[in-house]
Design brief:
Blueprint lengths: L1 H23 L2 E2 L5 E5 L16 E6 L15 E5 L2 E6 L2 E6 L3 E9 L4 E2 L2 E8 L4 E5 L6 H10 L9 E5 L1
Length: 164
């Protein structure tokens, strides 16, 4: 009986030391090249349109099934010339670039890893926010690079900045 209690106490103390060490000094995730896009800071205003234009890129979900209570996870994100289409279970949400105020990056921390994933927050002019995470979507970094290539600095419609 006493040996069993000592074994349980030893296992609990090893787990406790591991968790405490990881809380104090967590591991670092990979380094990402994140970008910020500010549409309100551009010299010229983005023309208002209701047509999406030509299709440029598609980013699909990593998971096959999305649970019904995961409202912020999208199955597919399509990039077009004038906007973005988010798809989830026969529902589509259209976001045009003239409706977006800024696209800002964020790092998503795991239980014991700082910066394990990355994501982007789309801040709309109607005060709504939309978050896209790399843990949910494949090729989100390529999607953002394609999006940044739509707004070169010569056009003056948006300001694209690298975040360190």
């Amino acid at each position: 009986m006493a040996i069993d209690k000592l074994i349980y106490l030893a296992i609990l103390s090893v787990v406790g030391v591991f968790v405490f060490r990881k809380m104090i000094n967590p591991s670092r995730g990979p380094r990402y090249h994140l970008k910020t896009i500010l549409f309100a800071m551009g010299v010229k205003e983005i023309p208002k349109t209701t047509e999406l234009g030509g299709h440029i890129f598609t980013s699909k979900a990593k998971r096959k099934w999305i649970l019904p209570w995961e409202f912020d996870v999208w199955e597919q994100v399509d990039l077009f010339e004038n906007g973005i289409v988010l798809k989830r279970r026969k529902k589509e949400k259209h976001i045009f670039f003239h409706e977006v105020y800024a696209i800002e990056p964020l790092l998503i921390h795991s239980l014991f890893i700082k910066g394990k994933y990355f994501g982007y927050v789309f801040e709309c002019k109607d005060k709504s926010n939309l978050t896209l995470n790399s843990r949910d979507l494949c090729d989100l970094d390529i999607f953002i690079n394609e999006l940044c290539s739509l707004f070169p600095s010569e056009k003056g419609e948006a300001v694209v900045m690298d975040v360190d």
